[in-house]
Amino acid sequence: MTEHLKVKVDAGVMEITWNRPDKKNALSNDMYRGAAEALEKASADPSIRVALLTSEGDSFTAGNDLSVFAAASSGGEAPQGNRYITAIAKFDKPLVAGVRGVAVGVGTTMLLHCDLVYVATDAKLSVPFVNLALVPEAASSMLLPARVGHARAFAMFALGEPITGAHALELGIANAALPAGEVIQAARDGARKLAQRPLGSLMATKKLMRNPEAMLAQIQTEGAIFAERLRTAEAAEAFTAFRERRPPDFSKV
Questions:
Q1: What order of strands is seen across the sheet that includes strand 163-164?
Q2: Cβ–Cβ under 8 Å, residues 44 and 90
Q3: Apex CA 106: angle with CA 105 and CA 108, to 5°?
Q4: Contact 103, 111 (CB under 8 A)
Q5: Residue 69: its pLDDT value, please?
Q6: CA nearest to 183, candidates 116, 234, 249
Q7: What burial class does residue 101 get, using C-beta atoms within 10 Å of its C-beta: 0-12 exposed, 13-18 middle, 19+ buried?
Q8: Which residue among 13, 101, 114, 146 is the one 20 to 30 A from 240 at the CA level?
Q9: Distances in Å between the alpha carbon of 114 and those of 91, 108, 122, 191, 220?
Q10: What are the chain's domains?
Q11: Considering only CA atoms, which of 134, 124, 112, 136 is closest in space to residue 162?
Q12: 0.85 exceeded by the pTM?
């Protein structure tokens, strides 16, 4: 388990905490692997009734560590998020999230798989995949339009502009928007309440409300296109511009 991920279990709740605050909890391959292993364990362990996603520091997660994307674009190790994305889509028990600060890319799309989401009113949620010459992931190309409507979802993907936690509540992405200092405790309280409910009934209700087969098929389709996009000249320009701290110029590719 990487030092950048903390996992603890208390009163039937497994709390998975992103722990890389100096990098705004940008997700490394090791963090993805550790979180996937934790969710797989939580699903299989009958003593664990709920999983909770939280973070250390002032940000939920800045999304994928862009150095991993840049390396993959140049032929290095591919991002290892697919196992985590699959685990979160298949997770059959209640899943809760507490979100403060920024939630970029997968930091926002993972919330679409959560059953209760508590956000800071001033949190900033964004899905700037097109800005990086990539495409949406985690079945978000299906789930986000279903949640907020096609027009809003396309604008979020194509323009990459963040929405506040308060707006996320209005759009139905979150269950509650609170002052930042209250978010994690509210998420823990919500998780504990769920842990006291009949687990079989909760799991049956969740299964009725979701179509994991459709989500997994969409994840596979997105993943194939995402991998192709990582190898394009547009992606190379996006990551070169990021490294050089300049705006990308896609007109030359």
A1: 102-104, 124-126, 163-164
A2: no
A3: 75
A4: yes
A5: 65
A6: 116
A7: buried
A8: 101
A9: 9, 10, 20, 11, 20
A10: 5-182+196-201 (3.90.226.10)
A11: 124
A12: yes
Rounded distance, CA 108 to CA 204, Å?
Answer: 25
Say how far apart CA 163 and CA 129 lie, in whole Å. 15
At 37 the three-state DSSP class reads helix
122-145 pLDDT, tens digit per residue, is 999 999 999 999 999 999 999 999
Question: What confidence tens digit (pLDDT) does each residue in 161-186 have?
Answer: 999 999 999 999 999 999 999 999 99
**173 three-state secondary structure:** coil
Q: How far apart are CA 248 and CA 232, in angstroms?
A: 14
| Structure-block tokens of residue 39 | 């969710």
Tell me how far the alpha carbon of residue 28 is from its chain's centroid.
Answer: 13
Quote the CA–CA distance of 253 and 249 in Å, as a whole number.
8
